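Thread: "does anyone have the structure for this chain?"

Original post by V.I.:
We have the sequence but no experimental structure in hand. Need at least a predicted one for the grant figures.
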Amino acid sequence: MQAVLITAYKDVEHLKWLVKYLSAAMRVFVHIDAKSNIDAKSIAACGATVLKRYVVGWGSFNHLAAIMDLMRLAVNDPEVDYLHVISGQDMPVQDFAWFDRTFGRSEKIYMKCIGPDSSAYRKDWVEYYYLSTDLDKRKKWVRRLNKITSTMQDVIGIKRHGIGRLTQVRKGLVYVSLPKAAADYAVTYFDSHARFRFDLRHTIVPEEFCFQTIRECVLKIHIFSNQSNGYGIRRIVKILYHLLPKGEIRLGAGKVQCLANRLGKILLLKHQGNFVKALG
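Reply from O.Q.:
Generated one for you, tokens below.
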């Protein structure tokens, strides 16, 4: 059986629908941001195992901590053999039969993974020790704090060359799909290497370095595919963008989410030539 790990903080009606839909064929584990007003019991009643432990800021260590807590629960479930990490604003764009064909008994890891040679790689996020562990990295005063911190380390001559003992640092989206054995190893490595956790705690957006770096340095025996979630799950904002004519959507993420909710519980989603009718 496959498991879906969801981190969420808003859009309770969509989250309820998502849990109900996925739990028909998968194990569902949800972490709700501790500062959110979403009631954990109402989500659990939809068919999920629910945690509400951490206050999660953008790019904070707590988001990674929440994902790791969910992953521990999933790997300890004897019926789970494959895991997907998604957000509460995602939407399945393939049916369950497709998920079974693609991931059933699969040993492939699906994730985005880039190295320092990529223009999208943020070396500055990982080569300094940042103090803004659980703060929202997008806020102006937090960016200023991080700039002061990195400048001081330049003056002193402090520069990191890895995360813990792992020197081949890689980056990518945290929304990955991976077999249970790989997830189990990632959790075990994370839990048993204090220096690895310490370095991630003082990294900007540590969730984007954790699984990719472990895979690069440790899990080389697994087949690797440079696709996030194998294109089985997409963000609602991206789905709507592809469904609507180009140039005709000029809405912020919040308004797009509201539009998605107003579409109701029956949505026709087009993805790579396949139509999926998602019934609530």
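V.I.: this helps a lot. The radius of gyration is 19 Å.
O.Q.: and DSSP finds eleven helices and eleven strands in the chain.
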